């Protein structure tokens, strides 16, 4: 066996079958010559009674000296009790991030999340995660990879942060499923971007104009009575869009709307007389259990966004989203002096902190009450006007 040098390797010719040429300087270091003419450097050793072989690199891509150095490193790992060939084999079989995404969606999201949340997760996976790191081996993902992905969408801070949240949940589950070591979540310590919370409340004149437009589109038939009723119910109840959109007639009782499944679980929502009048004006279709009937038989109206865009343009409020109707309901309740805890119960919030975003609106009735109270006291013991004050002449 010759010592492997560039001249020796270049002189080797391919044969009908692949064959090995071993180096005389380092035991286990050799070259594999394939029938195709490809030549790859090898490191061979025995482990557990078996001969194991590691492919180091292809001749031409690395030099003989570089291959010899790498072979020494492999043999050093073997001497420490490691098994490089098995590690490489396991790494080759390791799942990719894309595979984790699918398991995460099927075993977790589909089982535990609402349909709307499932759509958000699927969108994050398909549009942001898989294109960036889907081909990465799960065990190879590092914090810098997550930070780079997060930074890529810095111009969309809300989407960047939501994607980071999805990734963090996925990698937590990867640890539970034994796919990564405990405490190795690469999303840890990746700071989120500051988000500008957008809270839009309709003013009194805007609500009046919106009400006029809803009546107009219902009368001229440009929107169905079910679409118009949906927006009126959103305004009068403060419900989430999905709660009204999927509302069934059987859920409406003397107690209110008894919804078996909402974002926060089963929920009883009060149904004021104004909302009941909206419902009583709607025709109930025999073959459709839904209040907000759609175009397809037996289905609810799946698209309220396009009708809302038409209505808001006509009402002169193009920046108002459907969810802002819920904000408007809450802001009116707080501004009228309703306790913040009661507002939270009306909205179906499970945490007071969620409702506290409206707390600053409670200052208005307090300020008004302070003014009125001070005015009554001032009438009794008030300070004279500046024009009536005595002037001291020196």
TrEMBL record:
Superkingdom of this protein's organism: Bacteria
Alphabetical keyword list: DNA integration, DNA recombination, DNA-binding
A single GO molecular function term of this UniProt record: DNA binding
Cross-referenced Gene3D superfamilies: 1.10.150.130, Integrase, DNA-binding domain, Intergrase catalytic core
CDD domains documented for this protein: INT_Rci_Hp1_C
Keyword set includes Membrane: no
Family in the record: Belongs to the 'phage' integrase family.
UniProt name for this protein: Putative prophage CPS-53 integrase
Originating species: Roseovarius albus
